Amino acid sequence: MANDVATPLRMYGNWRSAAAFRVRIALNLKGLPVEETFIDLDAGDQHKPEFRKINPQGAVPALFDGGGPPLTQSLAILDYLEDAYPAVPLLPAEPRARARARSLAQVVACDTHPLYVPRVRNYLMEAYGLPKERMMEFVRHVFSTGLKTLETRLSTEAGTGRFCQGDAVSHADLCLVSLWVGTGIFGVETAPYPTVARIAEDCLALEAFARAHPLCQPGAPQG
Amino acid sequence: MANDVATPLRMYGNWRSAAAFRVRIALNLKGLPVEETFIDLDAGDQHKPEFRKINPQGAVPALFDGGGPPLTQSLAILDYLEDAYPAVPLLPAEPRARARARSLAQVVACDTHPLYVPRVRNYLMEAYGLPKERMMEFVRHVFSTGLKTLETRLSTEAGTGRFCQGDAVSHADLCLVSLWVGTGIFGVETAPYPTVARIAEDCLALEAFARAHPLCQPGAPQG
User: Where does the GST C-terminal domain start and stop, copy by copy (chains A, B) (predicted)?
Assistant: First the structure.
């Protein structure tokens, strides 16, 4: 990708990776240009030796900031960007508000998203001989469980504002949106989650989110 | 639990919760006494309305620090303790080292542990009619995948020292140990992971880890 300014940031990602999406939003919000190389997950490029050298886990995203080893795991990358590029903060300053933003982010990034990634879906189909449609019941169950927790918390906890934590975008919103866009892809019912929907749609109206959207990335299906 | 000093910290946990274990180690290392209430997960007490009011997700740990709402999600709690009680740091100061410690922690806390918790194990058995032994193949696959990533990274990356990140205990070690103690419970082969084993055993020799061990908590099986 051509950037008019020199950038030290390079990322290995994929159009449909929810984890790469989160990091892409943060980079946009912070005004940090990045050169993204798309790893073809369908072709299994994440398992090739040259990528395993970058991330032995065989997962995207992996971020390079100048020299030094790659940064991996999306939440760790988001925190690194807070430490290294604090001018546009994406976490509140107050410890309890920070903890709440992180906790909401982790409902998605720990307890929901890792359960429906391709490596789990493939395992269920291959090891247990489940047809795709039956495996998808698990995926939709996982989505619904995560969305229900988010809806209950966001609609009852005092910390919720325009965004998940107060009136400023935080890691919680990045994670929420990365889950939300998956509901369309996986056919998950969204009507029971109006507070999640309100925040997700408010976020996606922002240029930094819209430009990071999976369907706007190279390799995404057209139309 | 009797403490000689007044403590503002109260935690809802369970002897066998890997997430509560991580938080308990951090509290011990930081010298913070805590009153822990054990939620009977086998009896389903985490789903009772009175606990759902504390954590709508129905999961432990939940930490109270004086007044204010409960803190949830183990990694968010660990970060809160860094913010609120920084005297004994459990993350390195340098951003790249912090990012690596967090990334290793998240290999466990995002990509491994949430896949084998009771709510997933029960779903697989109930929705797909899998007998326990077949379901356990998934659990052992998840453990092995996580342990293999940790072993590869810890044995090849320059950041590894006496502990996961350099020579000081960090969140990475708390998470690594919380996974390691599960290998015995779930019958996971450990021989292929000598670097993980070395660090886990070094940690478990420390009083703060040993005292936090699941089998030393009320409700744990004897002997």
Answer: 94-222
Question: Are the C-beta atoms of B65 and B7 separated by less than 8 Å?
Answer: no
User: DSSP for B117-153?
Assistant: SHHHHHHHHHHH---HHHHHHHHHHHHHHHHHHHHHH
Q: Among residues B39, B62, B86, which one ends one of the domains?
A: B86
Residues A102 and A201 reside in one and the same domain:
yes
pLDDT tens for the 223 residues of chain B, in order: 333 445 689 999 999 999 999 999 999 999 999 999 999 988 899 999 999 999 999 999 999 999 889 999 999 999 999 999 999 999 999 999 999 999 999 999 999 999 999 999 999 999 999 999 999 999 999 999 999 999 999 999 999 999 999 999 999 999 999 999 999 999 999 999 999 999 999 999 999 999 999 999 999 988 6
Sheet with B9-13: list strands edge to edge: B35-38, B9-13, B62-65, B71-72
Q: How far is B183 from chain A (nearest CA, A)?
A: 20
Q: Do B71 and A152 touch (CB under 8 A)?
A: no
Tell me, yes or no, whether B113 and B24 share the same domain.
Answer: no
Indicate if B180 and B75 belong to the same structural domain: no
Distance from CA of B126 to the nearest CA of A (A): 11
DSSP annotation of B94: S
Question: What residue numbers bound the domain in which A56 lies?
Answer: 9-89
Integer angstrom CA distances of residue A214 from A21, A74, A185, A193, A206? 7, 15, 11, 22, 15
Is A4 contained in some domain? no
B104 closest CA partner among B62, B160, B143: B160
Count CA atoms closer than 13 A to A58's CA, side-chain side: 17
* CB contacts < 8 A (A, B): 131
